[in-house]
Write a structure and sequence with these properties.
Elements lengths: L2 E9 L15 H13 L3 E7 L4 E8 L2 H8 L3 H4 L3 E8 L13
Antiparallel strand pairs: 1-3, 1-4, 2-3
Amino acid sequence: MKKTFAAIVKRTEAWDHSREAHEQDGFADHAAFVGGLEADNFIAMAGLMEPSADVLFVFWADSEEEVRQRMAQDPWQQDGHAKLVRVEEVSFRIGAPQPKEG
C-alpha cells in the first residue's frame, strides 16, 4: 500500500519574479510533467503557499526516495527554476486525500 508524503519545493534564483509562473521559461514542459504525475495517480494535490511562494505537494509513493527520484525529473528541477527542499511521510488525521479509482 502506498504511503502519503508531503514535499516542499522552493523557487530559486533562476526564477524571474517579474513574471507569472505560466510565463517562466520551461513552463509548458513543467506543466506536462506535473500533469503526468497526476495522471499516474502519484500526485494527490499541490498548491502555492503564501506569502512564501513555496509549493506544497502531496504524493502517494512507496518511499521518500521514490518522491525524490520522480521529482528530480521535473524540468524546473533540472533547469534550476525550483528545488525540492523537504520530503516527509504524513499521517493525515482529518481530510486525508484519497487515490483516484482506476
